[in-house]
């Protein structure tokens, strides 16, 4: 049987009664779109973060896109972010009409190199978009300082960092607004698509609500365009409410898998295997468990014989893909991003990953690396 890098079926088996009850609750509620479950989830998700306001949207890409629009980002503006991210981060920026500007990442954590941001700021820069990639947060203090100095907005991309902490603060509470995805693989995942934008600013939240609902302020009355239909689905919201109550358990489960990998694989450092490291002040939630080795492709090939299927997050830096060629970044322009993209790969990671499969992964990786 193949060991997958991610699988929701063990979780579904364990939570089936509650999840089916969530669906039944919505079907019997008499309100299938923007009903009681979306409102309740918005309030509960905001409360989890100690923030006041949350708007549910249909996916994480639109959370980033509408979030930026609610911050006033549009055509002619520049948004500073990274090329080592899920492509949707950048698809969303382009979708607003703004131009993405990339800075390189750091060798030790694959996150935005905040020391490069100041030099990337131009008179057209409108917002900074740090991505809390893989489950730990970007250094926010220097970004906040730059934003204050230059009058920029900050949107956190928290699609991979639900529940992660940075010097005690939760991801999504350290900026003007934060975008979340509830795509099924995420740390808080729906059984389909979903997203949300968190903020403490009532004007931003009101703008989010108009942007997701045809630009309407009240039913049938549009007050602004362009706008979208980007509502969070009622069924997904009710499922997310149930799962939000278990978010801290999911995170604990991910950390337990990470500890076991560290114990089992730590000594392979002398064989060139680099395990994830957590920055001082960060509490990692391990959305993915990204390791690195110069012989990455040979290792992945060899692990197929053990029936272990691995993933690469991400094989192509955004600026090297043909869909972003118009941005004009030459190969070699982001050297750390490009080099690490050839070495990183992800080991299976999800809270319900059975211990025997964790052991299978550990012994297979050990055998393959010792035989290289
Ligand atoms: C998943 C993800 C998104 C997009 O979310 P969707 O719900 O798939 O649209 C955006 N940014 C990052 C960093 C992601 O991991």
UniProtKB/TrEMBL annotation:
A Pfam family matched in the record: DegT_DnrJ_EryC1
UniProt cross-references to InterPro entries, sorted A to Z: DegT/StrS_aminotransferase (IPR000653), PyrdxlP-dep_Trfase (IPR015424), PyrdxlP-dep_Trfase_major (IPR015421), PyrdxlP-dep_Trfase_small (IPR015422)
Modified residues (N6-(pyridoxal phosphate)lysine): 186
Gene3D superfamilies: Aspartate Aminotransferase, domain 1 (3.90.1150.10), Type I PLP-dependent aspartate aminotransferase-like (Major domain) (3.40.640.10)
GO biological process, alphabetically ordered: polysaccharide biosynthetic process
Gene Ontology molecular function, alphabetical: pyridoxal phosphate binding; transaminase activity
Positions in coiled-coil regions: none
SUPFAM superfamilies: PLP-dependent transferases
Catalytic-site annotation from UniProt: 186 (proton acceptor)
Keywords linked to the UniProt accession: Aminotransferase, Pyridoxal phosphate, Transferase
Protein family according to the UniProt entry: Belongs to the DegT/DnrJ/EryC1 family.
Protein name in the entry: Aminotransferase EvaB
Source organism (scientific name): Crossiella cryophila
